[in-house]
Amino acid sequence: MSDGPLFERPLDELLPATHRAAPRPARSAPTAGPETVRDRPDVELVAIARYQKWLIRVILLQILIAAGWVTAAILTDQMDGPSAPPIVVFGIVAAVILSLVALGVMIALASMLYSRTTAVALGLCQFLVGGGTILLCVVNVRATAELRRNGIRVGLLGARRSDLTALVTPQRDKDQVQKLGW
Asked: Where are the domains of the chain?
């Protein structure tokens, strides 16, 4: 044990042996290897990864539309006139279309992760004001956990393409990987 000040000592020296953390593996994320046992078939994992990528895109577009609405609100306060400018109408139409896409993608992904009734209930909760984006994030976290548990590395924008192409069995054509939506 070192004699330096308490705040400069490593935490493992201060904790009893029973509370010390196990050494971390060299890689930051689990990888699919011979020791990885998958809970789901590869086809389902690829579908979960595809829906998750779409879900992340929807979340990012919702944030972009919200920022656009704030910008449009600031600009329309400075304009005179009784009618709404075309940018506001475009924003409303884009938000409605995006919410329908979010509903479809979330039900598709949630039905793979939860039961069908739970997926439909989550889909109906999409219509709650402010709750839709939170539910999208919750389902996204569950999809990330499912993919990582099955040995697929997941980054900021979804599963890594190299891990997904490794899931495609050798009997399939390489052209089918391009048809998965990437």
From this structure: 40-178
CB burial of residue 3 (10 Å; 0-12, 13-18, 19+) = exposed
- Report the mean per-residue pLDDT for the chain: 76
Q: How far apart are CA 84 and CA 95, in angstroms?
A: 16
Whether 122 and 106 have beta carbons less than 8 Å apart is answered as: yes
Rounded to whole angstroms, how far apart are CA atoms 178 and 69? 35
Identify the band that residue 128 occupies on the pLDDT scale cut at 50, 70 and 90: confident
What residues contact residue 144 under an 8 Å CB cut-off, 6+ apart? 52, 154
Question: What's the rounded Cα separation, in Å, for the pair 165 and 79?
Answer: 52
Q: What is the average per-residue pLDDT within 52-64?
A: 89
pTM listed for this prediction: 0.66
Which strand (E) or helix (H) includes residue 67?
A: helix 42-78
Q: How far is the C-alpha of 129 from the C-alpha of 67, rounded, in Å?
A: 16
Which residue is listed with tokens 């590869």?
Answer: 42
pLDDT of amino acid 29: 46
